[in-house]
Amino acid sequence: MAIEYERIGDYDIPTLRLNNHNEYRNSFFGRRYKDYLKGNHKIIYYNLLRKQQLLTHIKLVEEEANELYESIISSLKSHEKVDEKLKADDPVRWVQMMNNIKNGAREIVLNEVIYRKRPNKKDSNDKRSHT
Description:
The chain is mainly alpha-helical. Helices cover 64% and strands 8% of the residues. It has one domain.
């Protein structure tokens, strides 16, 4: 991988580009996870970007999030008895309930998969008591 530089003022700034970055479009959860990493875990984000592993990492998290999302939706639909009969009898109520289910599932996935706390190695390894 050759590093290209762009001159800005008196400084040469490395230009980072992903290979084949236009081939894959992230879904809602992939975009949220990328934004979360970039905003809250910059070192991880830029290390993955530098190693050209960012898209692979985002795809894995996105797949996990989408699987959980679909699972939660199907579970809540059966629990709340949101079915084709309700859709035929009262379509407005069906849409309201489906929107509630989807919003709830989205919040769960965001909290459990996208924004989950990653353990800080320094905190877990440093258990010395200070006297």
